[in-house]
Amino acid sequence: MRNVKLAVVLPLVQAIAAAALLCMAGPLRGPPVATARLICVGLNAPALFFSFVGIGTVFGIDGSDLSFLVGVIVVWYLVGRTLDRRRVPRTTGDSAMVPTVGYCFLLALGGLLFYVGLLNFQNPTFDNLGHRPERGILTLLWSCSLIFLSGRALVRMIRHPLGKSG
């Protein structure tokens, strides 16, 4: 049986799902924001950093939605690549700098998403700019996952540096 490359499957599936949710939601016209759009953004919260507002329309699609979909592909490619690498046995090496910088970046991204998620709950009636609890909850789940997983990996790297046994 062939191994499924998650770095290919996850971006494809998530991009199709995100595009379908964005199509169901329709164009962003301001508050209230469609629930399908909130769920799409919450499920793909790190991809928000790829959204560029005000770039117009491309092929009849809002430019910010198009750049968001590119972000969805990038985010889920990185998630799939990470999961694919977990299945491959690790080799020891002298350079631990690249993984450390990557985990620190993910930890910072998790902190930023935690702040963004908390902003969604700033108004207890959930009527601030059309944000409802779906987006906040999903964004907080992303942030907690990034903080937990990258923090755990950093602690492991500190306890057991690459290339050292013991």
Question: What can you see in these coordinates?
Answer:
This protein has 166 residues and is mainly α. The chain is 63% helix and 2% strand. The protein contains 5 helices and 2 strands; from the N terminus they run H-H-E-E-H-H-H. It has helices at 6-25, 35-43, 63-87, 97-120, 133-159, and strands at residues 57-58, 61-62. It has a two-stranded antiparallel sheet with strand order 1-2. Strand 1 and strand 2 form a beta hairpin. The radius of gyration is 18 Å and the shape is globular. The chain starts with 5 loop residues before the first helix and ends in a 7-residue tail after the last helix.
Shape verdict: globular
**C-alpha-based Rg, rounded:** 18 Å
Major pleated sheet: 2 strands, antiparallel
Structural class: mainly alpha
Q: Mean of the pLDDT scores?
A: 76
First-to-last CA distance: 36 Å
The tally of strands reads 2
Query: Could you estimate the helical fraction of the residues in percent?
Result: 55-70%
If strands are numbered along the chain, what order do they take across the biggest sheet?
1-2
Strand composition percent: under 5%
Number of domains: 2
- Unreliable residue stretches: none
Output the helix-strand order.
Answer: HHEEHHH
The helix tally amounts to 5
